[in-house]
Amino acid sequence: MRTDSEQLIRLLRPEINKKCDEIKEMKRERDKARLFILICIAVVSIPTIFVFFGVSILLIFLPVFIIAPTFFVLASLFLNQSGGIVYEQA
């Protein structure tokens, strides 16, 4: 009896793993949907809260407007530097 159940489990293991993967994928999709809804709510509510309390959105994004161009300029400088010889390992 024990060998029959072990053999059955061994035979069904690929299907069990496939079903577990499907369940994990459904959970990931559900989590992504919840995150999307949360982001949508945040996109609507955060600016509304800022306007309600009299905070200008430009004051919040001003550092981003300054840092982003600086980052792109510095990133292009760092990426264009040729830094020595690169040896490939086999």
3D architecture notes:
This protein has one domain (2-80). 84% of the residues lie in helices and 0% in strands. It has helices at 2-53, 57-80. The chain starts with a helix and ends in a 10-residue tail after the last helix.
Overall outline:
elongated
Distance between the termini: 52 Å
User: How much is the average pLDDT?
Assistant: 81
* SSE succession: HH
What is the count of DSSP helices, taking H or I runs of 4+ residues?
Answer: 2
Q: Structural class of the secondary elements?
A: mainly alpha
User: In percent, how much strand structure appears in the residues?
Assistant: under 5%
Using only C-alpha atoms, the radius of gyration works out to 27 Å
The oligomerization state is single chain
Largest sheet: none
Give the low-confidence spans: none
Strand tally: 0
The overall number of domains is 1
Which helices and strands, and how do they pair?
Elements: H1 2-53, H2 57-80
In short:
The chain has helices at residues 2-53, 57-80. It has 90 residues and is mainly α.
Key traits:
mainly alpha; 90 residues; 2 helices
